[in-house]
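WARN no homologs supplied; continuing
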Amino acid sequence: MSNGRLLWVDDEIELLRAHILFLEKKGYEVVKATNGADAIDLCRQQAFDLVLLDEHMPGLSGLETLTRIKERSVSPAMPIVMVTKSEEEDIMEQAIGSQIADYLIKPVNPNQILLTLKKNIHKQEIVSEVTQTGYRKAFTDLAMMIENARTAQDWISTYRQLVYWELQLQEAQSDMSEMLKMQKQEANGGFAKFIRQNYERWIEQSSKVREFESSKVRKFESPKEKAESLPPLMSPDVIKQKVFPLLDKKEKVFFVIFDNMRYDQWRTLSTELSSLFNIDEELYFSILPTVTQYARNAICSGLMPSDIKEMYPDLWVDEDEDEGKNLNEEQLIQTLLQRYRRKERFSYNKINDSQGADRLMQQFSNLMTNELNVVIINFIDILSHSRSEHQMVHELVGNEAAYRSITLSWFRHSKIKDLFERIAQSGYKVVVTTDHGSILVENPVKILGDKDVNTNLRFKVGKNLAYKAKEVFEIKDPRRVKLPQPNLSSTYVFCYGDHFFAYPNNYNYYASHYRDTFQHGGVSMEEMIIPLITLEGK
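OK structure emitted
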C-alpha cells in the first residue's frame, strides 16, 4: 500500500536518485519532472499528495511554477514544499506568501524530507493516533476524577478535562468521541447528585460566608473543610468580585456577556483572541434556573432573583407576565453601582444583530469616556433557539462540534471581532463571561401542570405539578434558594443531564420535535459551569 504519491520537480533530478530510492523504500510513489512546464501539465492531469519543487530551474522559476500549479491543479489544496539552494530572505518571504507547506534548503538529507511528508501528508493520522493513545491513558484518571469529585472546584477541574479531551478528539477526528460522550453522561449523573446535595446550602450560606470572610472571623479545621464548606463564585458575585476590583485599581473595563455561551465554545473563541490579549481564565457557577431572566439579572444586579423582586419590584418580571424578562438590565446595573456607592460612568449596550454591532463600532470613541462599558451579545443564544425552531439551522448545527464551528465562524467574520481588536488597542481591561450554557437534550421526562406553567423545557415553576421526584431536582420552598414564589404552593423542578420536559397529552410531538436540540434552564455541567475571563491587551 502506497504511503502517498509525490511529484518531485528539479532540473537536476538525476542527482537525487538516492533520495528517491529512500522514499520509494518508505512506500512512496515518486513521479519526476525536470522543469516547471512539465510539472504544471502533470498537476493538471493527475492528483498528487505533495509536490517537492526546486526554485532555481531553467525556464519557469519555482515561484512561477508554484503560482500556476495552484491555479490549474486538479488538487488546489495540495501541499507544495519549496526545495532550494537559496537562503535569500526575499525568496523565502515570497514562497511563504504563496502559502507553501514547507521550505527546505539544499542540501537536504532524506530524513528532512521524510519529516516534511509526515507533517503534510500524515499529520491527521499521527495526531489521531497520539490523541487516542493519550485519551486511553487519561480515561481511567477521568473516571477517578468523576468518582471522587466532592467540591465545586473538583467538578470545575473535571469539566475542564472533559472539554479538553472533547476538543482534542474532535481535532483528531477520532471515533473515540463516542466514548467521551458516555463519560460526560456519567459525569453529569454525578454532578446532578452533587448539586442536589449542595445547592440549597450554597445559597443559604453565601451571604453568611461573605460576612465571615470579610471579618476574618470564621475558622476552618483544615483546607479541605474550607473547600467543602464554601460556596463557589456564583452569578450575583461576578461584577462585585471581578469588575469592581479592577475599577478600584483605576482600570477602565469592558464587561462583555455572551448570552448562552458554553465553556467549549469559549475555548474555541479563545484561539482567535490569544494573539490580541493575555488571557486569565476561570470557571464559575450559574445560579438556577440557568436562563437569562434569572442568571443574567443576578449578574447585573448583584442579587439573587427573590431579592431583586423584593428590593426592586418594578424591575422584576414574573414568569406569567408578558413583558420581556431581561429589559431592565441597565437599571439593575445602576442599582448595583448605587448600593456600593460607586461613581463610575458606565454605558450599557445590547447587540442582537449586525446592525447593532455596527452602531456600537461607530460610537466606539464615545465609549472611551466611560470607566465601565457593559456589552451584551446575543448571537449564540439566538443560534441555539433558531436550531430548535428551524430545520435548516438544525441541519447546519447538527452536533456539538458544528455548534462550536459555526460560533467560531460567526466570530471571525463579525464586527464583534473588530470590537475586540479595538479594545485590545485601547488600554481597557476586558472581563468576558456568560449567564449560562446549554446542553444537547435527548431524553424526554413527563410532567403535568396547569396552563400557567412556564414553557421552558429544562425547568418548570408552578403549583400542582405532577412528576416523578427521582427524575428531577425539586425545590418545594423557593425561598430557601432565593427564587421568587409566584404562588404560596409554587414548586420549581429542574431536569438533570440531557433530559427535557414533555407533556403526556402531546408527548410524541414534544419528544420528536425537541429531541437533539440545545436547551438551557436545568442542571448540567454544560449549563452551570461557565467561563469567566479577564483579558489584557498585548
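The chain has a mean pLDDT of 91.
OK
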